[in-house]
Specification:
87 residues; mainly alpha; 3 helices
C-alpha cells in the first residue's frame, strides 16, 4: 500500500509540519542576521518568477487565445518587471 501525502482523515503528517517549522526558523534567522543578502535573494527570486511567468503567459497564447489582450499585457508586464528586478 502506497503512502499518501495527506491521509484520508484530511490531516497533514506531523513530519511535514516539522520540516516547514525548521525551514521557517532558518529563514527567519537568515533574515535577522543577513538582511541585505536575504533581501537581494528575495528580489532576484521574485524577478526570476515574474520573468518566467511572463514568458509562459506569452507561450500560452499558442494554445488558448481567449482573453488574448489581457494575456499579452500580463506577459509583457511580467517580463518587463522581471527584467527590472534582475537587472
Amino acid at each position: 500500500m502506497a503512502t499518501t501525502l495527506v491521509p484520508a482523515q484530511g490531516r497533514v503528517p506531523w513530519w511535514i509540519v516539522l520540516l516547514l517549522g525548521i525551514a521557517y526558523i532558518i529563514a527567519g534567522l537568515i533574515l535577522v542576521f543577513q538582511p541585505l543578502a536575504s533581501l537581494v535573494v528575495i528580489a532576484l527570486f521574485t524577478g526570476a518568477t515574474w520573468f518566467v511567468s511572463g514568458v509562459l503567459d506569452l507561450i500560452s497564447l499558442a494554445r488558448d487565445r481567449t482573453r488574448w489582450v489581457w494575456t499579452i499585457l500580463s506577459g509583457v508586464i511580467g517580463i518587463w518587471a522581471g527584467l527590472v528586478l534582475l537587472g
